[in-house]
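> tool_call: predict_assembly(chains=three)
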Amino acid sequence: MSAPIGIIVAVLLFGIGILGLILRRDLVIKLLALGLINSSSILCLVSLDRRPDVSPPILVPGVEFAIVDPLPQAMVLSAIVINFAILALALVFVMRLVERYHTTDSLRIEHEIERDREEVAP
Amino acid sequence: MSRTILLLLLPVLAALALSQRRRLFAIIGMGVFSLLLAATYFLSHAPDVAITEAAIGAALVTFIYILAIRNTGRLVVVASETTGLLQRVGDGLAGVEWEILSALAQEMGLDLVVQFVPLADVECLVRQGDADVGAGGLVLDTAPEGLVCTPSHLQTARFVVRGPVEARNVLEPAPFSGHFSDLVESVQRRDPLSVRLDLARFMFLSRHGLTGYEATREEGTAGYTFVVSVRRPEIHTRLARIIQHLRQTGALEDSSRRHLG
Amino acid sequence: MIRRNARLGAVSGVIVAAFCCLVWFGFELGTERSANPSIWIEANAPIGATNLVSTIYLGARLFDTVLEVLVFAVAVLGVRHYLEEKARQVSTVETLPESHVIRVSAHLLLPLITLLGIYVTVFGHLSPGGGFSGGVIVASGVLLVAIALGPHAIGQRIPPERLEWFEWIALLMILAIVLIPAVAGDPPLSGILPPGRFGRLYSGGDLLPLNLLIGAKVFIGSWGIIHHFLQHRGEI
């Protein structure tokens, strides 16, 4: 068994994504960090099989060889496309939010929302 | 071996990309990260995932983000081209209104982008939100619905041009709309027309041969204004403040003398 | 800004690192039993496709794939709904298309990119690729031409309303392929087409039609998203 470097790096990327989500105030960069979290989960699943000397899961007629486990790859394949669609939807919401409050700063948007709420129901 | 190197490079790149100041650099950094990630998937014996990640992460996701932020840092002005106020000179622009708008863009830290449209479309486009400011020799008595007029930056007068004299034109004068270059061409062709103009356009026409046309000056004075949408009050206040500042320092008179004579 | 959130960020980072160490420990224990993918090779024998991954997500896990395509369609619907512009009174400002070089090269590249996308889709059961990748590749080719022509000209070339019909027809056909065995009395997930010879283009049972339909659906959905993003004059 070789070292689980794929899983460690995936976990590290997950941590970087979460830090980016918390520390950056710009909404667009928060979305980029969310995308990074998505990609890190997929990297973790793809790097699960750690046997040495395995080949991609494409069979060749008449030849026998050890293949890497194809199940995690099948699970994440459609996940990548769906992540893209959901990210686009999240970006649409961010665009609508920015049109309403004229800023991409999340702290300022929170203050404005608090102020609107106080005006409605003081 | 190369897979290990790529894997170790990924967190470094991600940290660099997410810590950028400008949004555009962060997006480009994440695009490069997606490409490296696709290479990593390939070296981890997952070619299906690699093709999908390369096509989506590097191309589509990056593009969606850039399309979303493409209007960052731009101040969009729609205008009707008017000599002396806002006109094309060689590769750039010049005029009294252009100097005011450049000062506004510089104060807001944005790039100025001017698009020339027929005069009748200016109000619609600003109201729809396609542009931030409407300019180009607009003379409006009252602010149209959904728009705000800035205080006038230059006095003007109204003229009616009718003619040609020999054709006995009895059409009602219509306010000028459309492109100014079309009007100049029809004057040169001696077409029958009857149009209401403002001072800058009238001066340009008279300098370039208005023989055969009858021009009368209308009563009263008016002023050129900019139009801004009601939903962008900060642009309106800044623009008003800049116009007042330029008027106080005398720069407004200076530039109007230079451009309009 | 950084200083104010540094404590929160540090605490969260420590928690996430601890969680990740636990996860890794679990994985360390888990991979003692090496994965044995020979069961997939045996499951593939009646189907006869070469790409094992496509055998899985279009064979044994077909229901997952269909529902994920549905999620994709709903996300595209959401994008379309929230970016719908109210009727415009006047034709929008004509944005200049790009320079001549870009226009010519985009029109030269579009057939090649489309060919690559269709190849990846059709041969999805034999070599890496499949419906998802192929649809996305064709969508990025059309995006290239859209950028070259300018955002409003492309809407006249490719009418979005008619494309939406094809999207839903493709989804219905996918559902038909999935549900016909159940209706006909066969056990579920046994395909409707007979498997061909192993490793040839005509093999894999109903993997090829499924790949084509998914490719069409993903292309139309992705192009719908991109089209609405292109037309929206955002304020960010």
